[in-house]
Specification:
- The complex is a heterodimer of chains A (114) and B (114).
- By secondary structure, chain A is mainly beta.
- Chain A is built from no helices and ten strands.
- In chain A, the strands form two sheets. In chain A, strands 2, 4, 5, 8, 9 and 10 form a six-stranded mixed beta sheet that branches. In chain A, strands 1-3-7-6 form a four-stranded antiparallel beta sheet, with no helix packed on it.
- Chain A is globular and about 40 Å long.
- The mean pLDDT of chain A is 93.
- Chain B is mainly beta and 114 residues long.
- The radius of gyration of chain B is 13 Å and the shape is globular.
- The chains are: A mainly beta (114), B mainly beta (114).
- At the A-B interface, β4, β5, β8 and β9 of A face β4, β5, β9 and β10 of B.
């Protein structure tokens, strides 16, 4: 597609439920990143996929968070047993190669845990 | 431990004047720096970047200055326009060519007053 697509754009869920957030990167982009922005905070790195390599999961805040990338394209971020502190905007980004021109971000999914 | 710091949460500037947004970093391994701009309900968009081998990079109304010894960079916008009102994020990387995830600051909200 023309840009990075994320769905849903908004998600309200009850505490304790599981949620899945989807990211459709730009076609051909080999690198895919998940970040989140909590209220008043910067962009916090969560996980990074590069081609067929094992993902860099060093930013995941707990084992309730997981992500996969199928076929080198679409990625799903799953949060199990959601907590109120998981409320944030979850941003997905992709890049072709290297950081030189930065990433292309999607519009994000605003997750609210009530 | 915040590696990239934007100490001013907000900045207000009159239209036509210069806007100066500041960013400090602590990791001496960073050698590539980027600025992103974010409008509400949209993902961040890449604005301008600079490599550590330079001390200045200019693109139209936007100039980024890097003082490596002080671990400080700044973004100058001149003349400022109302459409520049947005949140500006500073980001850093240990490599321009690699895909190491960018480290972001918390952002500075710029308001340009007509």
């Amino acid at each position: 597609g023309a840009g990075v697509s994320q769905s849903p754009s908004n998600k309200v869920t009850e505490k304790g439920k599981d949620v899945e957030l989807r990211c459709d990167p730009i076609s051909g982009h080999t690198a895919l990143y998940w970040y989140r922005q909590s209220l008043g905070q910067g962009l916090e790195f969560l996980i990074y996929f590069q081609g067929n390599s094992a993902p860099d999961k060093s930013g995941l805040p707990s084992d309730r968070f997981s992500a996969e990338r199928t076929g080198g394209s679409v990625s799903t971020l799953t949060i199990q047993r959601t907590q109120q502190e998981d409320s944030a905007v979850y941003l997905c980004a992709s890049s072709l190669s290297g950081n030189e021109y930065g990433y292309t971000f999607g519009s994000g999914t605003r997750l609210t845990v009530v | 431990d915040q590696q990239v710091k934007q100490n001013s949460p907000s900045l207000s500037v009159q239209e036509g004047r210069i806007s100066i947004l500041n960013c400090d970093y602590t990791n001496s391994m960073f050698d590539y720096f980027l600025w992103y701009k974010k409008y509400p309900a949209e993902g961040p968009t890449f604005l301008i970047s600079i490599s550590s081998i330079k001390d200045k990079n200019e693109d139209g109304r936007f100039t980024v200055f890097l003082n490596k010894s002080a671990k400080h960079l700044s973004l100058h916008i001149v003349p400022s326009q109302p459409g520049d009102s947005a949140v500006y994020f500073c980001a850093a990387s240990v490599s321009a060519s690699g895909n190491t995830p960018l480290v972001f600051g918390k952002g500075t909200r710029l308001s340009v007053i007509a």
